[in-house]
Amino acid sequence: DRLPWPCHRLDKETTGALLCGRNPQYMRSLNSEFASRSITRKYLAVLRGGAKSFPEKEFQVRTLLEINDGNVSVEDGGEGTIKRCWAETNVRVLATSPIVPLTLVELQPITGRRHQLRVHAAHIGGKPSLRLVRCLSYPLTHKKEEQTKTKTERLYLHASYVELSRYRQTGPHRHLRLGITSPLPYNFISLCRLAELPLPEGSIDGGVCVDGVKVGDGAVEELEGVWKG
Fold it and tell me: Where does the source fall among the domains of life (predicted)?
């Protein structure tokens, strides 16, 4: 049997939900939903900056991106640009830390450009800056030489929620919206707890919902599926 095909991508160091198609038929269906922008994706991110850096609680970042030799940046009119494309991201501020200059935000990409969220996170506030939080994470070992060899860099950007259209096999109301919340990784939870950033309900353990209502036992009988988180 062939492995499922991923229908979109997660940037390096980004954790969370990834949609895959079991066969070419499902691949075409999911790709069609992505093309029509009927699939909703929401990311959680920890950004540098306190309350003064985020005076608005909800806003949109809309920029023209330049893609030049694989590098993506906000359009600046430079020469040698290979491709330019519009990118839109809705931003919602969820919480600001009372003890350190960190903010938890929800990012909802309207378009799906490469490195869009990284570039838009850096551009919040009108000028590029290092916004996305990252740090080095070490394994639980007491041997310093092993820590140096195996340390990894973590980016606090998590594909938390994805919602798409599915159809019941029978009944008068066949269409439904299936929502999937991907559990947060431990390092993300730990940072938010240390910074006293409250996480959205249900984001830690994840789960599924149908038409906006959480399925308690995780069994979606209409789709013959079950949540195994």
Answer: Eukaryota
